[in-house]
């Protein structure tokens, strides 16, 4: 699956509240937006829209080495999570990155 990835964030440290270490990561992913029409409503869109996605911990080193924004070919898994309203929902999880290409020239930092 090809995704537009615009940001990767990895926050880690020791919780001031519990004293326990933490390591959290997230990625902002986007898929082509879909137009649709139904009775009494039309949605015409162009571009990309954000999609909720999670990251498998094993992919973090690869994401840390990439530059953003980029187009990435990813393999995905699906997991079931409890939603805010208490119902189960499928969540897409990035399980691997096989190829990627930066979309913006990167400036070398001196």
Q: pLDDT average, as an integer? A: 91
- Main β-sheet, in a few words? 6 strands, mixed
Beta-strand percentage range: over 45%
What is the ordering of alpha helices and beta strands?
A: EEEEEEHEE
Task: Return the structural class.
Answer: mainly beta
**CATH class categorisation:** Mainly Beta
Q: Give unreliable regions as ranges.
A: none
Under CATH, the topology is which?
OB fold (Dihydrolipoamide Acetyltransferase, E2P)
Question: What is the CA-CA span between the terminal residues?
Answer: 35 Å
Number of domains: 1
The main sheet orders its strands as 5-2-1-7-8-6
Question: Can you count the beta strands?
Answer: 8
Question: Which percent bin holds the helix content?
Answer: under 10%
CATH architecture: Beta Barrel
Based on the model shown, name its key terms.
8 strands, two-stranded antiparallel sheet, 110 residues, 5% helix, 1 helix, OB fold (Dihydrolipoamide Acetyltransferase, E2P), mainly beta, globular
Question: Layout of SSEs?
Answer:
Layout lengths: L1 E13 L6 E12 L3 E3 L2 E3 L4 E4 L1 E3 L4 H6 L4 E13 L5 E15 L8
Parallel strand pairs: 6-8
Antiparallel strand pairs: 1-2, 1-7, 2-5, 3-4, 7-8
